[in-house]
Amino acid sequence: MSQLVVENLDVRHGLLQAVRGVSLTVHRGEVVALVGANGAGKTTLLRAIAGAHPPAGGRILLDGTEITALSAHRRVGMGIALVPEGRRLFTRMTVEENLLLARSARRRGPWGLDAVLAAFPNLAQRRQHLAGTLSGGEQQATAIGRALMTNPEILLLDEVSLGLSPLVVDIVYDQLRTLIEGGTTIVLVEQDLSRAMAVADRVACMLEGRIVLEGKSADLGRDAVTEAYFGLSRGNTAQGAAP
Ligand code: ATP
Fold it and tell me: How much is the pTM?
């Protein structure tokens, strides 16, 4: 069943239209990766789904209920949790305090402080440390743990690997895999195309605010995604390193 439906969504930053007529359906338990070059509109789309940025047009439905006009807080209560780019932790609060803050919007479910610390053993040792003193990987784990504390049905993850060493990214993805096996629906933004295609059931590639290619990871060739990523299939001559 479709859990999340985005219909013809437009999102603006002032005069700039960052998301243009995007439609996307995510099924329960699915992992969908949003890929695309810097500025393609991935973060803006995730933030609009989470209710952090109001759309200029289109609709968002969760389990068939329209949520387009609901506040971010109401959406958390309905099971949508965003792990924002840059993690946005309270750096002068401890790991435990950061996690407990998310309880205000807490839904019933398996995730609480003990469950999160058990799922992220690296955090258990650091629970009384200030978040600002943690390594990048520990901060990412705290940000994911904080989202889990709300017992989400859908986890929106922005730039999971940003600023982390490949080794630490492996650890974070191992932890995500546990969530995926537990049936959590995930929409993630990932710059690393190989990693995105390995973890996701489906990949949607954005270019200049639109989804220009979408399909099952197993069916899409890496070359096709790379072409869509750079807009080469549309005669665009964008240059850059392969993602
Ligand atoms: P990145 O990987 O760099 O985060 P992205 O695909 O997530 O890229 P967005 O961050 O959604 O893309 O940006 C889409 C467009 O909107 C870009 O042109 C960006 O410059 C612009 N934009 C993003 N945030 C703002 C903002 N707060 N104010 C004005 N323009 C913005």
Answer: 0.90
